[in-house]
UniProtKB/TrEMBL annotation:
Stated name of the protein: ALF repeat-containing protein
Protein species of origin: Streptomyces argenteolus
Pfam families: ALF
Keywords: Signal
Extent of the signal sequence: 1-27
Length: 201
């Protein structure tokens, strides 16, 4: 890792609580992309479609965004504000422009949150650093949607093999680790976070 990147990572770790708790003006960092350009992967609704939606349809579309477990803090906050306002104009404005901008801001914070996690592995860290060096907002969004899962799975598989290499590992733990390695990325992550601690040895 280059010295400048090390400094950035340390600074990100120190400033992460402020970034997460700050209002939009502080947390935004670089200027958000133009409202006309939605980040890649964001299921932005075409303006013509939103204009034809009834109030109930607009509300359902926003509720679906809130139900998405990957929705970030600003997206959730602004989606709730649009619903609380309840007017057709507020809900349409959020879907047409507010949502892509809020998603872009959340995407700026997410890489630093991942870097600040002491459990982030080598591949995850390397790919985030590469994105922060030269990645576009669209590339960051795509990585968060697909690349992160793949990088995390590779790091988790390495972590599982390290457990297998421990001296004196019990047969029960060895069998559980072997099963986890053959499982899905989500199963490997769950085992590392919870499963391994439920097995004696």
């Amino acid at each position: 890792m280059r010295p400048t990147r090390t400094v950035l990572t340390v600074a990100a770790t120190a400033l992460l609580p402020a970034l997460l708790l700050a209002g939009p003006a502080v947390a935004a960092g670089p200027a958000s992309p133009s409202p006309a350009v939605a980040p890649a992967g964001v299921p932005a609704v075409p303006a013509s479609s939103v204009g034809d939606m009834s109030d109930d349809d607009l509300r359902v579309a926003i509720l679906r965004i809130l139900a998405d477990e990957d929705s970030g803090r600003r997206v959730i906050r602004e989606a709730n504000e649009a619903l609380d306002n309840g007017t057709t104009e507020a809900m349409r404005s959020f879907l047409e422009t507010g949502y892509p901008l809020a998603q872009a801001e959340d995407d700026q914070v997410a890489p630093f949150r991942i870097l600040a996690d002491p459990d982030s592995g080598r591949r995850v860290t390397n790919e985030i650093n590469a994105l922060l060096d030269s990645g576009t907002p669209q590339e960051i969004r795509q990585w968060l949607e697909t690349g992160y899962r793949l990088a995390q799975a590779e790091d988790d598989r390495v972590a599982l093999f390290r457990i297998l290499a421990r001296p004196g590992i019990s047969d029960a733990l060895r069998a559980a680790v072997t099963e986890a390695i053959e499982g899905t990325p989500e199963e490997m992550r769950h085992f590392l976070e919870y499963g391994q601690y439920e097995i004696d040895g």
